[in-house]
Design a protein that fits this description.
There is one protein chain. By secondary structure, the protein is an alpha/beta fold. Helices cover 40% and strands 16% of the residues. The chain folds into two domains: 209 residues, 3-Layer(aba) Sandwich (Rossmann fold); 167 residues, Glycogen Phosphorylase B (Rossmann fold, 3-Layer(aba) Sandwich), CATH 3.40.50.2000. It has 13 helices and 13 strands. Strands 3-2-1-4-5-6-7 form a seven-stranded parallel sheet, with helices on both faces. The chain has a six-stranded parallel sheet with strand order 10-9-8-11-12-13, sandwiched between helices. The termini are close together.
Length: 381
């Protein structure tokens, strides 16, 4: 089988949850012996031509096509215009050999031009599109975020409606996709996953003081403002706890208090695991999401989870391993943090063990990519 993966970057050449998902997608397809033509671009100082993020055996099945992402003009809607131009570059990179592929997997806007051209080339191979969380159709944190989402909605709806298949993580993301007019038969539900070596093998421990960790960048939709407000309320009420932040934060975004620690950006997975191993809870308070990798990472290290009920979070988080709460509500978030602090040792240990069990049963990439391959093979046949 030969598959083209056309995307807006691969981690670590481009940083982001979508790009990390693409890395695992390409890695495991190639491990399964599928020939992958990878079309992407570089936003780092790393040598993208080496593709040394993959093993030697994996690289034997990967053809590497590197493009440049067009410069933005800085005007409203610049990202959409630049993305369309990038999709033209992607299309031009494979247009002479499209029928070599059995399936074309596109990420975000990168397949826009290709999908447009297929309307008059029905004999081309099937094209699937993945927009991850369809965040532009989810609840927005403020008026500025809402206006940005409006700009994205029309092209996302058009691309989704005109692709042959649409990938979904499931849960509320599938509901959004259906609301756009896409029938169930064109939706392929494949959850996100994590590599087996992330899974903690020793017995999880409880911390002397309840310890929380947030892992991610400072972005409005991530709910940091609400989380900071809740932490300040806990401090004012005299609660004892520790809160870790992993990610790039400016000084004016930090809470100055002995209970709160900022580790900055960490790219070393071993260090991230170490911090998570000494955490009781992973907190993901986002207004909108796809299927957050950080929750999977927290679960794999036996963290209980506090997450908002957005995107596909409910697939990972339930009352068995933590708290699933309403997005954007400071009072609910504060009360949940208090409840987490006051949770008994026995209950917290149950949360932690259920996180580990759920990861092992449902979210290991080896199993997930076999499911994806079977779905693609079924489409081809």
């Amino acid at each position: 089988m030969q598959v083209a993966v056309i995307c807006d970057g691969v981690h670590p050449y481009v940083i982001g949850g979508m790009q990390r998902h693409t890395y695992y997608l390409v890695k495991y397809l190639s491990k399964l012996g599928i020939k992958v033509t990878l079309v992407h671009y570089n936003n780092s100082k790393l040598d993208i031509q080496k593709l040394d993020i993959f093993s030697e055996d994996e690289r034997k099945n990967i053809e590497n096509i590197v493009l440049h992402f067009p410069k933005s003009d800085g005007l409203p809607g610049h990202y959409v215009r630049a993305s369309y131009k990038y999709s033209v570059l992607c299309f031009n990179a494979i247009k002479e050999r499209i029928n070599e592929f059995d399936f074309i997997y596109t990420k975000g806007f990168s397949g826009w031009k290709l999908i447009k051209e297929k309307k008059s080339n029905k004999n081309w191979p099937p094209i699937g599109v993945k927009f991850h969380g369809y965040e532009m159709f989810q609840k927005q944190a403020d008026k500025r975020s809402f206006l940005k989402s409006l700009i994205l909605r029309r092209p996302v709806r058009w691309i989704s409606l005109n692709a042959d298949y649409v990938f979904s993580y499931g849960s509320k993301i599938t509901e959004i996709i259906k609301s756009l007019g896409i029938t169930t038969g064109r939706i392929i539900e494949i959850p996100a996953g994590i590599e087996a070596d992330w899974i903690r093998n020793d017995q999880p421990q409880l911390q002397n003081i309840r310890t929380f960790t947030y892992l991610g960048r400072y972005e409005r939709r991530k709910g940091i403002e609400e989380l900071n407000s809740s932490i300040l309320k806990l401090i004012s009420k005299g609660f004892h706890f520790k809160f870790n932040f992993i990610g790039p934060f400016e000084e004016n975004q930090k809470i100055k208090h002995p209970s709160v620690t900022y580790f900055g950006s960490i790219t070393d997975n071993h260090r991230i695991r170490e911090i998570l191993d000494f955490s009781d809870y992973l907190v993901c308070p986002s207004w909108s999401e796809g299927m957050p990798n950080v929750i999977l990472e927290g679960m794999s290290r036996a963290c209980a989870i506090i997450g908002t009920d957005v995107g596909a979070t409910s697939i990972m988080v339930s009352e068995s391993n933590g708290f699933l709460i309403e997005a954007g509500n400071v009072e609910i978030l504060t009360q949940t943090l208090i409840q987490a602090i006051e949770t008994s040792d026995a209950k917290l240990m149950s949360f932690k063990l259920h996180s580990l069990e759920k990861i092992k049963e449902e979210f290991i990439y080896d199993k997930i990519q076999i499911k994806l391959m079977n779905s693609i093979q079924k489409i081809i046949q």
